[in-house]
Design goal:
With about 1100 residues, this protein is mainly beta. A five-stranded mixed beta sheet has the order 1-26-25-24-23, with no helix packed on it. Strands 53-59-58-55-56 form a five-stranded mixed beta sheet, with no helix packed on it. Mean pLDDT is about 85; it is low at about 1-45 and about 220-230.
């Protein structure tokens, strides 16, 4: 189980009252008699347990009993809560395992007694002891529901309620699980609110002793009810991805669900599409039953929604994990005990495979309670075996090795009938492995710091003699008490001896123990530190632990720090670590306590004095230009001291080169860096009175001269031949002159040295005709170092172009066609040279130039191509125009796809009203039969019509194909039909090559020759040619009857009659009631029966009929009369 606590379990118990009505009692007695006559046995072999003779353990009726090692001594103790019929306990109870098959009630009384709840044990605070998550109702009513966390203090000496707010829940599940995989156990709750609303909630563990609701919803709260039994949830890593997945059941009116949700992380879950049985009264445990490292599901439940008194329809299921959150049912066994039930998995026979125990109750008054043991067959199936465990109800079972003999024992709780006991907690020892004699000395430390230790052996014996290796205690150094306690005279190591006898056997056991008492610690020395602003936090444990412990083992103690003796004494207001000290003297109090007993502690203190170090101003780097490229330069440091410390008194400044060499004192006014290019000098400022110093770095930077890269000449477009151009493109000047250099500034100057605007305008206009030279300077913005280069500007003439004529083409499909544009460039520029032509579409996308002989437009019907003609030496010197491409639409003719004439017609004359420039009719043989708008068609087959239209000087043609078909009249060859059936139909078979349609009434026609789901009656089926070339009919009779009729006078179904009977004049029709009495004899020509007898309306019921059609066919059946 990944990210889980131990002992994660669920018990959901209910208290209710059953009232059995007399008629129900008769049924239960009959059922009991039937089951008594038919008894089946499926058990084999046996699994035996010996009940431990524990005295007066309080019972877990409607509550729960739990194995838990609450005192962390390696032996399972018992925790019990439940209904208190006998006024035996008012709070939940711990029973400490004495190790010798006996238990002693603990003095812990602050955990309230609850029922209808759940619990979970886990170390949520990661301190090595088990804490309790606990829910239920203290009264039996949801209004008194609680959910609490009790923190285990000092290995079970105390359970302290955590001061957090969790909602009270009953009849649900309370689970620890690391839902978000952060190493901290979160809380998962399901259950009912005081208003009987089901809630499913997750609370994130913050790691600071608090839990925060994640407000995540799994199910629709409004659709759930508190119907018996309640909801159950399990969290387990079902897909081995390291995150616990959710198994949950819920119920709504007339519906219940059993679902799996995959953990997606970050408190998000996704429902898995998996078919689990919809059952209620679910009891489930999860474990790897086939040892394939995948968690499987073992559960029992009932398919009946309402299960207040149980039922006999339950089953025991095993679903094997197939991986990827897929499960397969491998085993199902009849199991009638699904009321107040429980399932536990464990290896009961130590064969390495998980077995199962099922506890539950069958229907009251019919079935008795059950306790079943199923042993694992190691093939994904189980077998039931005999055992000697009792039967009970309103309780459950739990497995655990309480006697540490390597086999699983049974904790059994609830109420038993034979013998009658209202509230029991029994312990059954598994006899598979049995240690007959003691082999270990058990110890228990006192919950007080009094050097007291209790002792016991881990099995029973006849007599014993103890020796405590503590002669200073005189007569108290020995004892013959079975479970003695001894107060040791002083801390130290002791060898304990126990000489026991059992029958003829005697033996001596020994055990070395360490008795600590309050720790003996050393008072630490005071601390004096310079409280630098960057180092004002101190790890007190790292600073003082070793000195305080003075040789004691650090793992045995907690060392805590406080601001006062009172806080240390009461363990309040602990100082945080690391701790932020203020600039004032203070005392720190230290509490050293045992990790196993917080009441065993000592307190000491030490002083802490902090001094404020000198403050140093932040200064900019010292930068000098590298004129000779050797990486060294002379730096002015004459004002460095005042720059760093201002006018603070009593401060000295020292400088150190990067290699650690100190700059000579007193400091010179200038110095040369020793490390080329850049060097960090360490500047140390020391207070001459306190000795506290502060250091910082002074960065010396030898800045290399920047590079002003050579620039290409720029050419501007002169559109009026005056030597001046407004089109010089300066957009790349800065990029080219820097060539990747950063931290630089670029400035511009004219020939007279005047600074020009920065950045240089783009486009730029020259002020000197034809040619102008500018100076471009590149400066380092930090050092001010710079370099220069020249930029030359030349003017050039603008291209002269013609406006191209539009181009036209016929539509080749959807407004697209091909254009021959090879002559476009000649039309555009004539014989001019030194020009570059580019073409772009409406979106500015450049086209491949020159344009081709079969250029295809990319915009349907009409497209404009933009044209730019540039001076090849200067792209800013250009002229622009365009050419339009127009696509002529093809002539269109609306003509039928098919013309049909009857076989006896000689031909068909067609005349068109459209006016086109050309006509051409082609017959099926490929001959041209007309070149006008008229044609006479005689041959059957496919014809082609081609028409042409002259547009914008281009003749565009379009062709259409159509067929001429001759049709034969229809002939009915056969009529198939079915009557007196769930699907009465008529299916007509015909011959003829025409296109036909079919009808049953001569008015409604359809293309299908089959008519389904039709009433009985006399039909005249009809077939006709859709082109009007023929017609055929035939009579068909279907016999059937109405299944339901309603003689209420509304004009619909007021009479019952055999449908189609009118075609059988000799038919005899008789109507009877359910007792065989003749009610009516009908004539086939009659309207029908009106639902009366002897002038009295008969009630709604089923009635029977007998019909003899007179042709050998006889029918019998029944129908329903509804009013």
């Amino acid at each position: 189980m990944v990210g889980f606590s131990i002992n994660l379990r669920f018990k959901l118990i209910y208290f209710y009252r059953i009232i059995i009505l007399p008629e129900i009692l008769f049924y239960l007695k009959a059922t009991f008699l039937f089951l008594s006559l038919f008894t089946f046995t499926t058990v084999c072999f046996s699994q035996n347990f010996k009940r431990l003779q524990t005295q007066n353990l309080k019972g877990g009726y409607n509550g729960f009993s739990s194995f838990v090692d609450y005192d962390n001594n390696g032996y399972l103790d018992i925790f019990v809560t439940g209904v208190d019929f006998e006024n035996r306990f008012s709070n939940a109870v711990f029973y400490k395992n004495n190790g010798d098959n006996s238990f002693t009630e603990s003095a812990i009384t602050n955990i309230p007694r609850v029922i209808y709840g759940d619990y979970a044990w886990a170390d949520f605070d990661n301190n090595g002891t088990l804490d309790l998550l606990y829910s239920g109702t203290t009264s039996g009513f949801p209004a008194d529901g609680i959910t609490k966390v009790f923190q285990n203090i000092d290995n079970g000496c105390e359970f302290r309620e955590l001061n957090i707010s969790l909602p009270g829940r009953t009849n649900g599940s309370s689970l620890w699980a690391d839902v978000d995989s952060d190493g901290l156990l979160d809380i998962f709750l399901t259950g009912y609110t005081p208003s009987n609303e089901l809630k499913v909630e997750i609370y994130r563990n913050t790691g600071k002793g608090d839990f925060v609701n994640q407000n995540y919803s799994f199910i629709d709260d409004e659709n759930t009810t508190t119907a018996f039994p309640g909801e159950i949830a399990r969290l387990h890593d079902l897909d081995n991805d390291g995150k616990p997945d959710l198994v949950i059941t819920s119920r709504a009116p007339n519906y219940f669900s059993f679902d799996i949700y995959k953990n997606l992380g970050d408190f998000k879950f996704e429902k898995v599409d998996i078919a689990l049985p919809h059952i209620t009264a679910l009891a489930i445990d999860i474990g790897d039953v086939n040892n394939d490292n995948l968690a499987d599901l073992v559960f029992t439940g009932s398919p009946n929604y309402s299960n207040n008194t149980g039922d006999g329809d339950g089953d025991f299921y095993v679903y094997i994990n197939q991986g990827n959150l897929s499960f397969q049912n491998s085993f199902t066994n009849e199991n009638d005990g699904v009321l107040q039930n429980d399932i536990e998995l464990g290896d009961l026979n130590n064969d390495g495979y998980l077995d199962a125990i099922n506890y539950g109750t069958g229907p009251w008054g019919t079935y008795s309670e059950i306790t079943k043991i199923y042993l694992n067959n190691k093939d994904n199936t189980f077998r039931e075996v005999n055992h000697n465990l009792p039967k009970g109800w309103s309780g459950g079972i739990e497995l655990g090795d309480f006697d540490n003999d390597s086999d699983l024992d049974v904790l059994y709780y609830g109420r038993t009938t034979v013998p009658r006991d209202n509230e029991v907690t029994y312990i059954y020892e598994n006899t598979l492995i049995n240690n007959e004699v003691p082999f270990e000395i058990l110890t228990g430390e006192s919950c007080f710091c009094d050097s007291s230790v209790s002792f016991a052996l881990n099995n029973d014996f006849d007599s014993i003699e103890w020796s405590f290796d503590d002669p200073l205690t005189g007569n108290q150094n020995k004892s013959s008490v079975n479970t003695p306690s001894h107060i040791f005279s002083m801390p130290g190591e002791y060898k304990i001896k126990a000489t026991f006898s059992k029958g003829s056997l005697s033996n001596t056991l020994t055990k070395d123990i360490l008795v600590t008492g309050p720790p003996v610690i050393k008072k630490p020395s005071d601390v004096f530190v310079c409280n630098n602003s960057t180092q004002n936090q101190y790890d007190l444990n790292a600073l003082k632990d070793s000195e305080i412990l003075d040789g004691l083992k650090k793992e045995d103690f907690k060392i805590l720090f406080y601001g006062s003796f009172s806080d240390a004494e009461n363990n309040l207001n602990r100082l945080p670590t690391p701790y932020n000290f203020q600039n004032k003297p203070s005392s720190i109090y230290v509490r050293v306590q045992s990790v196993t007993n917080s009441k065993c502690y000592s307190i000491t203190s030490f002083g802490f004095t902090s001094q404020t170090p000198p403050e140093i101003n932040t200064i900019a780097d010292l930068i000098t230009c590298d004129d000779d490229t050797d990486g060294q330069a002379l730096f002015d440091i004459s004002t460095l001291k005042s720059d760093l410390i201002g006018n603070q008194p009593n401060l000295d400044l020292e400088l150190f080169y990067e290699n650690g060499q100190q700059v000579t004192m007193p400091l010179p006014a200038t110095l040369i860096n020793q490390k080329p290019n850049a060097e960090n000098l360490t500047a140390r400022v020391t207070n001459t009175l306190t000795g506290c110093s502060t250091e910082t770095f002074v960065q010396l930077v030898v800045s290399p001269l920047p590079i002003a890269h050579t620039l290409p000449d720029l050419i501007g477009c002169d559109d009026n031949n005056d030597g001046i151009s407004e089109y010089f493109d300066t957009s790349q000047i800065e990029t080219l002159v820097l060539n990747g250099q950063t931290g630089m500034e670029v400035t511009y100057y004219d020939a007279a040295g005047n600074m020009l605007p920065n950045p240089l305008p783009n486009p730029y206009t020259n002020s000197t005709a034809n040619t102008e030279t500018l100076t471009v300077r590149v400066s380092n913005t930090q050092s001010g170092c710079y370099a220069e280069t020249l930029l030359t500007l030349h003017t050039a003439a603008q291209p002269q172009i013609n406006q191209p004529a539009p181009r036209f083409a016929c539509d080749a499909g959807n407004g697209y066609s091909s254009f021959d544009l090879t002559d476009l460039e000649q039309e555009l520029i004539g014989s001019q040279t030194g020009l570059r032509i580019t073409y772009t579409d409406a979106n500015g996308t450049q086209m491949l130039a020159p344009l081709s002989t079969d250029f295809q437009n990319t915009t349907a019907w009409s497209q404009r191509i933009n044209i730019r003609v540039e001076n090849a030496n200067n792209a800013l010197c250009y002229s622009e125009t365009y050419v339009d491409l127009e696509v002529n639409a093809l002539p269109e003719v609306l003509i039928e796809d098919t013309f049909v004439i009857c076989d006896n017609e000689p031909g068909l004359q067609l005349s068109r009203s459209e006016t086109f420039d050309s006509w051409e009719w082609e017959d099926p043989a490929g001959s041209i039969i007309s070149t006008t708008a008229e044609v006479y068609l005689t041959q059957e087959g496919t014809y082609t019509l081609s028409v042409g239209e002259l547009q914008n000087g281009v003749l565009c043609t379009n062709s259409y194909s159509f067929r001429l078909e001759r049709s034969q009249p229809p002939t009915i060859t056969k009529v198939d039909f079915a009557d007196w059936s769930d699907n009465n139909f008529i299916e007509i078979s015909t011959i003829g090559d025409g296109e036909f349609e079919y009808s049953l009434d001569g008015s409604t026609w359809q293309d299908s020759r089959r008519f389904d789901y039709i009433k009985g009656g006399v039909y005249e089926v009809s077939v006709r040619d859709k082109a009007g070339c023929g017609f055929a009919t035939k009579e068909v009779i279907l016999v059937d009857y109405m299944k339901v009729f309603t003689p209420n006078g509304d004009g619909f179904n007021d009479y019952w009659q055999i449908e189609g009977a009118e075609a059988f004049p000799d038919a005899k029709i008789y109507i009877f009631n359910r007792f065989g009495k003749l009610l009516k004899e009908l004539s086939p020509q009659a309207t029908g029966w009106d639902g009366s007898f002897a002038d009295q309306k008969l009630p709604s019921d089923d009635y029977w009929f007998h019909v003899d059609l007179g042709d050998g066919r006889i029918y019998k059946n029944h129908f329903t009369l509804k009013r």
